[in-house]
Amino acid sequence: NAGVTQTPKFQVLKTGQSMTLQCAQDMNHEYMSWYRQDPGMGLRLIHYSVGAGITDQGEVPNGYNVSRSTTEDFPLRLLSAAPSQTSVYFCASNQGNVGTDTQYFGPGTRLTVL
Amino acid sequence: DAKTTQPPSMDCAEGRAANLPCNHSTISGNEYVYWYRQIHSQGPQYIIHGLKNNETNEMASLIITEDRKSSTLILPHATLRDTAVYYCIVRVRPDKLIFGTGTRLQVFP
Predict the structure, then answer these.
(1) Dihedral (C-alpha) B96, B100, A105, A19: value to the nearest 10 degrees?
(2) Per the CB < 8 Å rule, is B43 touching A106?
(3) How many whole angstroms separate alpha carbon A47 and alpha carbon A64?
(4) Angle at CA of residue B79, ends B74 and B85, nearest 5°
(5) Is residue B84 helix, strand or coil?
(6) Contact B99/A48, CB-based, under 8 Å?
(7) Which residues contact A81 (CB under 8 A, 6 or more apart)?
(8) pLDDT digit string (tens) for chain B, length 109 residues
């Protein structure tokens, strides 16, 4: 199993550009999530999905869109990049059973917006 | 979700036990205590979790007080590779984890 994979590893954007961060998992997990981590901070939830076709907002959803057309993939779209979106982005997946499952995290995408 | 409080940083000598405390005084009866760690800027790595009883796995032990208002993560023989930020998380929902700022553990030779 590759686990949770993310592409790209690094990205530099100019203000106003759009892009999609890719996330895929091969563990057949129903739940997938996107977090961002700013320097010196813990992770904050952007959006999450509890299954194909179902998504919901987390703590910091503004400026981001998601969709979940398959169980495996959960892309994150930045509509119009802003310097405040400079951060490290982590994707995670889990089975969905509190007490018996854990969230598995990808390696992250480091995004800089100029 | 209940809030957790952790010391911002701790040191530990290599080979000694590292004991990382966490307060979660508002925890509810059905909320689990999870521990993750993050080495450099890698993705967080699951360590251990528990509800009431003490738990042990190949990485660590988790001691939860009887009133469940605090817990301690124990790394029995810390190595340099255990230098990381450790997050204590109280979890009730299957769809998300609420991260605080964690404890930065520095293991020194």
Answers:
(1) 90
(2) yes
(3) 8
(4) 65
(5) strand
(6) no
(7) A13, A14, A15, A16, A17, A18, A19, A111, A113
(8) 558 999 999 999 999 999 999 999 988 888 899 999 999 889 999 999 999 989 999 999 999 999 999 999 999 999 999 999 999 998 878 777 888 889 999 999 9
